[in-house]
Amino acid sequence: MVKDELIKRLSALGFPLFDMEEPQNINATIVDVVKSKDFRLWEGFPIILKNSEGKGLFNYNELKNYFKNKVDKSSLDNLIVISLALYRNLSLKFSWVDKLYKSLPSDKKTKIDDFLKKIKNNEDFEVTNRVMSSVRLKATFNNYFSQAQSKLNDLLSVKEQFNLEYAMSQIFSPKQKELFLKKLNREKLTKTEKEYFSRAVKKKILALANQELHNLSRKLLEE
Questions:
Q1: pLDDT for 86
Q2: Which of 41, 55, 66, 216 is the most buried (most CB within 10 A)?
Q3: Is residue 152 one of the residues assigned to a domain?
Q4: pLDDT in tens, 62-74
Q5: Angle (CA) 141 144 148, round 5°
Q6: pLDDT of residue 168
Q7: Domain identity same for 91 and 183
């Protein structure tokens, strides 16, 4: 069973089970993941590799020196090759991939196409005499990045909402903004609100919708 300490440390490498750790512990964490032989963590290795490389914390030449056991060293290389095959299958391109690929032993480089074929066909494959599921590998990776994208979309949505609120406050008074939104949402206006909307708010909306005014405004901002 994987120690709770290792589970917590993995968040620094982007695996969604966990909390942050110091950068100097990254190599030790990856070593522990490889040696754990825990498929739950091995299936998340493409996430760990992508995020640690993205932060500039992954150093293959330094990391491989941590492994004295040939079997564990082979497991590390296989997990890296599997990760690269998965990225290729998903058409993901990262600037660091070519450099990492060139650092791998020649016998491991030749395996990438074999792993890629099995991943494409949802076939199981062997890693250091152990069978891994390509379906679970892809699901773990896709689930993580779907969650990350969802968080990003939520953040962008909030940011856009704040930007819209600010822009509207520069043009409309609070009451005018309220009527604008009510009209937009097809809510019923009182007689007084309708009159005020036609008298004050609609004129501003017409001005905002004027394409020539819009073009001139953009031109001024570009100067």
A1: 95
A2: 41
A3: no
A4: 888 888 889 999 9
A5: 135
A6: 81
A7: no
